[in-house]
Amino acid sequence: MEAVARAPIDALRPRRLRRRKPLRFANRLPGGRIFDVFEERPLGGRIRAIRRLVLVLAWTLLCVPIQALLLALPGGAKMGFPVLYHRVLARLIGLRVKVIGTPCRDRPVLFVSNHSSWLDIPVLGGVLGAAFVAKAEVGTWPVIRTIARLGRTVFVSRSRGTTAREAQEMRDRMAAGDSLILFPEGTSNDGTRELPFRSSFFAIADGARQVQPVSVVYDRLGGLPACRRDRPLFAWYGDMEIASHFWRFARRSGARVTVVLHEPFPPHRLPNRKALAAEAERIVCQGAERLRQNRPVEPLAAPRSVT
């Protein structure tokens, strides 16, 4: 009787009448900082994540020597093979890619996109067939460094002493016919909004024949529209660790990303790089916002000439 008297009142009620415990956002995953409200059952999610990790490693180990060989050979295969690698990689990690619009064929093209996650790399790499412009820090990460270099990524430090040299390197790449993928925000966002585009990033736009804005939003999870509380599962920003973020994402199923390729336009259509950055930001943000609201989206028209 004494033990019964000390028991919580819910313990004396039938199970169907007990109050549910409130959701607690505790650190339940190794190295993780965010526990998703809709986390799937532990066993199935872990098996799924382990399977995906093994497949990703196997696919990468297969592709690295092939791409290394292609880089030593003449021809365009060294740019085409990374498209296949990224496209398969996105499927292996459980991400379905929906594309609205068409990549510009009037190369070289400067693709400018919003950026919220490392997931943007396999997504855009499998759609656009272009080299990425990444911060120099990425060139120091194990494994990722090797993959990025084999993909002919351009690394920039953004320090004043090297800005001119790095800008000229990117112009030379475009003069050789290579298209580039640029993230003008300068860092990744939290997936709920875009950061201002930096006009300094558009100093290389004169080396491209066309500029094409691109909107990227992760809009499905478990086959249902993703909502605001799902964003941390996709977005990778701040001091998040990439290993724990990959683990959380790999446990889930039914994820989809939508990529909207807006109408391209020649960079000289706008008077200066500030106007170019502002117009690209407007188009990218407008497309991304419509996707987050689960509204129908079509590629937005290019800006008219400004005199």
UniProtKB/TrEMBL annotation:
* MF terms (GO), sorted A to Z: 1-acylglycerol-3-phosphate O-acyltransferase activity
Keyword flag Transport: no
Biological process GO annotation list? Answer: phosphatidic acid biosynthetic process
Q: Which UniProt keywords apply?
A: Acyltransferase, Lipid biosynthesis, Lipid metabolism, Membrane, Transferase, Transmembrane, Transmembrane helix
- Write down a Pfam family by its short name: Acyltransferase
Q: Which SMART domains is this protein grouped with?
A: PlsC
List residues traversing the bilayer. Answer: 53-73
Q: In which pathway does it act?
A: Lipid metabolism
Instruction: Report the PANTHER family cross-referenced here.
Output: 1-ACYL-SN-GLYCEROL-3-PHOSPHATE ACYLTRANSFERASE, 1-ACYL-SN-GLYCEROL-3-PHOSPHATE ACYLTRANSFERASE-RELATED
Q: What name goes with this protein?
A: 1-acyl-sn-glycerol-3-phosphate acyltransferase
Source species taxonomy:
Bacteria, Pseudomonadati, Pseudomonadota, Alphaproteobacteria, Acetobacterales
